Each structure stands twice: as C-alpha cells, then as structure tokens.
Design the sequence.
C-alpha cells in the first residue's frame, strides 16, 4: 500500500532490492555501512525520503518516525542479512545489528512476497591475527588440565566432565571466530578465565569459568562450565 508523501507501506521491486544490495556491497568502511544501507532503502521507497534530513540515517539525534515506512518482513530480513554479511569485513556484526534496528523501517507480514536466495559471499579478511599473552597461554593450559581432572575424578563422560569440556571447546572456537574483527588480543582474567579484546572494534568480552553452586568434597575439582560474558 502506498499513501501520501507522509506514509509509504509497500513491497520493493526486484530492481530496487538489487540496487540496495549493490549499495551495501560497495561500502568501504564500517562507519558508512548502516547509513548507506538505510539511505539506499529509503531512496528506493520514496526519493524524497532518502533526501529528507529527518530520514538521513547519518544523523545522531533521535531517529525519524519509522512507522511512516514499512516493507514486507521477508525483504526487511533479506536487507538486514546483506548488511550483516558485509559487516563481517569490519568485524562489526553486533554494532551493525544494533544500528539497523534504529534506522530500519517497520515491517509487516506478506506471505506473497518472497526474496530469491542470494549466494552469500565471504567478506571476512583472509587472516585473523591473535595475540595471546604469556599469562593467557598458561590459563588455556590450566583450563584443559581442569577438564582432565574432572574426567579423572567424576569419570570420563560424566555430566561434570562433558559440561566442562563442551563449554570449553565452544569457547575456544569462538576465540577464533571473526565476528568482532580480525585482530584479537587474549589476556588472563583469572586462573581459568580469559578476557578477549577486539583490537579492530574495541569490543571487550570474556570467556569465564562459572563454578557449579553447591558443596563438593574437598579433593574434588570444581565442576562448572565456561560462559561467554559480554
């Protein structure tokens, strides 16, 4: 449905969707990513919207009334996915996701509107640089030995053992992921925990060991699991 210049609720055409995708793929910096996505979208919906100051996604003051604009949910999700895929190049997926919700228009269900699957390119940099301090390396070794002690005391495959091993392996895998950038520093937080800093974006999170509450026999190693802390 298309109303007056004050209200535009409609599906985008294939040509308009292609133009938005091209604009996103052409972005060369994280700073321009979300503004370029929103600008291309609003311009496609209504040229006056893309040019109007209140619809300018580059503004830092409160966003415009996005309910003036709406597109089918399938198209909304496809545009967001394209933007987040491009964000991989800058390690800014979390930042982009938060900003998209600030500037994107409303969405509405329309089962008749579909979006053709689009091959997803890999925008990540070719190399992930990991800096691990000496103390962090000792912590990684200590965590592995803690898992071994749990297996020896409670039994290999016990709940205490598998909970720790699975969470530790998942946490290690996340250290190598590039969601927050391709330059990461890993430091010791405590005997079994790590602090992870993206030197690309400045985002800091942790991989912390959380002991299971409750008493335990004095010689027993502490059961628990590793959790990502943001």
Sequence:
């Amino acid at each position: 449905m298309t109303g007056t210049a004050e209200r535009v609720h409609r599906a985008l055409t294939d040509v308009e969707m292609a133009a938005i995708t091209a604009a996103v793929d052409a972005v060369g910096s994280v700073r321009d990513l979300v503004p370029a996505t929103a600008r291309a979208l609003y311009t496609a919906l209504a040229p006056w919207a893309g040019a109007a100051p209140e619809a300018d996604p580059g503004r830092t003051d409160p966003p415009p009334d996005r309910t003036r604009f709406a597109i089918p949910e399938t198209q909304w999700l496809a545009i967001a996915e394209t933007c987040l895929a491009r964000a991989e190049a800058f390690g800014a997926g979390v930042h982009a996701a938060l900003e998209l919700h600030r500037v994107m228009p409303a969405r509405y269900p329309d089962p008749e509107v579909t979006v053709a699957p689009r091959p997803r390119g890999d925008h990540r940099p070719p190399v992930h640089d990991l800096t691990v301090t000496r103390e962090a390396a000792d912590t990684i070794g200590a965590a592995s030995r803690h898992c071994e002690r749990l297996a020896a005391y409670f039994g290999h495959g016990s709940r205490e053992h598998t909970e720790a091993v699975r969470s530790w392996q998942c946490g290690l895998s996340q250290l190598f992921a590039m969601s927050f950038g391709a330059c990461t520093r890993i430091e010791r937080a405590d005997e079994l925990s790590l602090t992870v800093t993206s030197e690309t974006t400045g985002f800091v999170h942790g991989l912390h060991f959380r002991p299971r509450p409750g008493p335990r026999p004095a010689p027993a190693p502490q059961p628990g699991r590793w959790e990502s802390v943001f």
